[in-house]
Structure formats: structure tokens, C-alpha cells
Amino acid sequence: MQTVRREVRIMPKRKNEVAAPVFGPETFRFFRELARNNRKPWMDRNRDRYREAVVAPMRELLDRLTPAVLRLDPGFDVSGRTGRNFSRINRDIRFARDKSPYRPQMYLKFAAPVGPEDGDCHLYVGVAAEVVTVGLRLYHSGRRSPTAQLVLPRVGEHQAWLDRQRRRIGRRFESYWYASERGEWTKHSGWPVEPDEWKKLKGWVVRRKMTPAAACRAAFPAEIERVFREVFPLYRFTAMPDWKP
Question: What percentage of the chain carries pLDDT values higher than 70?
């Protein structure tokens, strides 16, 4: 798969200059109001506000994080495409129980092109009305998915490596995973441990939760970079064909 590249210009800061915050209170106010007014007429009236309060800062965050993400691995897609880097705010309601047309949150995500178009595993930042989350998330559709094909053979051979990662970051990061049981997804707290749990696994999230106030600080992109560095070994384990312990 050929990755589309953008030319990203990062202007150097002057000495003693501090970069301005990416997000402001209006981003989180927009999501709160969208949750209360989740209808197309409201969204149509607030489309320009959505572009200014959500789309523009999310794209600025992509630009700020791009150098650090490419240092982790130059294969990460940073093309800025919706679906690839940005989640869609429009909800697909054809088969969903929730018929509200919009999602009151947005995700910025990074994946290397080793799987399907939208990938199975991402480093991500999630921005919603009351919380911001940063970390790793993995979802796959079955044992034939690219992620499952990589991970399942590794789990049995490298359980000690996974145990070390859990000891390294387990107390500082929230972790939960999903299994498909009787046709329904069931959420489990903690890390998947046993090989049988990995065989049933449909999704796994390792994340740090932050407040909107923290996301409105100038240091927020640097904090994201630190989180990405900490969870990147797990990303390589679950997503990269050339992983070695």
C-alpha cells in the first residue's frame, strides 16, 4: 500500500517562546452542545463553528505531533485523511441502535500501512466533552485479521515480555479489553493475560485519561508524545511484522 505524504512545515520557535495551546474551551463546549442537540438542523447551523473549534485544532495537533510520530517509525501515515488520521463525526446509523447522526467526540489516530485501509491498531488521541484519552487501541474483526495473524502466534512465545510491559506501565495506564461472548461484546478490566483470552479478544485499549483543562495547556502535545513513547512497544508487538523482543 502506498502512503500519501503531506509536506508538513513546522516553524521553529524563537528562544524562550512557548507554543500556544492547541485546544481551547470552545472545543469542549461544542461537543457538550452537540450531545444535547444531536440533530442535522443544529449541525447545519453550527458547521462553521465545528470547523473552527474542532477540525482546525485537530489538524494543528496532527502537525505538531507528526515529527515525534515519525521518529517512532517513519512508516506511520500522517497524510491527514479523514478515516486514516481523523475519525468521522458522522455516525453510520444503518445498523446501529443509536440513531443520533453525529458522534460527540473525535479521534486523531496514527497507524502504519500494514493492514486494511483504516488499520487494526492505532496510537490515538480522543477528544470528547468531558474527557481526553491518549494511548493505544486495537480492534479486529476475527482471527484472519492482520492484527490477529501477527499477535496470536506471539502471545504464547513471549508471555514474559508482555508481563514486563504490564509491570512497566500497568499502574499508570488504564487498560481494558473486549471479547465476543454469545454474539455480544463483553468488556473486561485489566490486561489480557492467558492465551485463551487473546484468542477471544476483539479489542484492547491502553490509555491515559486527562481533563479538558489539561488539553487546553500549551504542554499538551508534549504529554501526548510521552504517552506515545511509553505505549509504542505494545504497538510494535500488536501491529508491526518486524517486531522482535
Answer: 86
Q: How far apart are CA 132 and CA 61, in angstroms?
A: 13
Q: Which of 21, 208, 209, 58 is nearest to 130 (CA)?
A: 209
- Residue 216 and residue 23 in contact, taking contact as beta carbons nearer than 8 Å: yes
E strand or H helix at 158, and its extent?
A: none
Tell me the pairing of strands 174-181 and 132-139. Answer: unpaired
Q: Which three cell numbers, joined as nine digits, stand for 115?
A: 493492514
* Predicted TM-score (pTM) above 0.70: yes
Asked if residue 86 lies in contact with residue 58, where contact means CB atoms within 8 angstroms, the answer is yes
CB-based contact 136:205 (threshold 8 Å): yes
Report which of 131, 133, 157 is spatially closest to residue 211, judged by C-alpha positions.
Answer: 131
Question: Strand, helix or coil at 74?
Answer: coil
State the cell numbers at 69: 510520530
